[in-house]
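Mods, move this if it's the wrong board.
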Amino acid sequence: MNKTLLYGILIAGTIIAPFILPDYRTQLATMWLMIIVALTWDMTGGQMGYNSLGNIFFYGTGMYVAAVVGISLAYNVADYTNAAGGGIYKFTDGQYFGGIFLGSIAAGLFCAACAVIIGWITFGLRGPYFAIGTLGVAIAAGELVSNWDWVGGGQGIALPVYPGDFNIGKIFFYFLFAGLGCAVFIFVKWLYSTRFGAAMNAIRDDEEKAEAMGIHTLRYKLIAWAMAAFFVGIAGAISAFQLIHFEPLETAYQTINLGIFMVVCVLLGGKGTLWGPVIGAIMFHVFKEVTWNYLLGWQWVALGALIVVTVVYFQDGVMGWLMLKRPEWFGMKVEQKTASAEAVK
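Not the wrong board. Structure tokens:
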């Protein structure tokens, strides 16, 4: 299929999806969130070979940064989050939408800066040590925030409701996530075609040789992780306003849920590929929604089974399996020897 036609169909489907499936608008928005976190995780995990278990830190931090910025446009943050205050706070339309816009930008920039700072320490680790180190950062952040009264502590933060029709609000947040997801996809598609993308792959293949060739590996690692953190932080900011209320351990820094899901999405679709994280995120989200609705009580068993099957039988993910079985779909030419040629030999 012509690529232009394919992208046209995908764009059209993205635009009409919330209108032809009105009962699934929230689920569709969540699917785009999964695509975003999967694509950003693959920037370091698949393209660069640094498997992080702490990217959820940027998601949770983005939520809190956006909430603080949004609240501060109208009220004192400490008074607003004070559990003993009991006040009913009103936001104008300008304050609400301004909070989303400014909060998202602030969340992205703050998370990118955090990635650089944390990276100076954690990128000295390799393999499972890096993964465990980043996981420790996310867990520690959740515990610290849950004991920080200025941002609501363990009770979390309640943000204003969308100022308008509830269904219009669902469409609004769907397109925020979809727009960000498309922007991330376009960005990584361009990035992987540049010299920066080649340097990332060189680090993944052999970091010592890359360093010997003159590649400043730490610089590339820090920039790549900062770019991923920027987009995850924005996704967290949008989620904060979509969820209305969130709290640190179960919603923001949910290491055992979204923190693991983003990794599974990439493994399912195929690490180090452009479309792998997208396909994996869609497949995983559909699988999760079906099991959560029809296998309640057994959903975690089903999820564990999916992970086992993926690791054992599809180690290169769906994209890797397709490349092996149908290389012609990806522009790969496979020479097939004819029976007569074999007979001559």
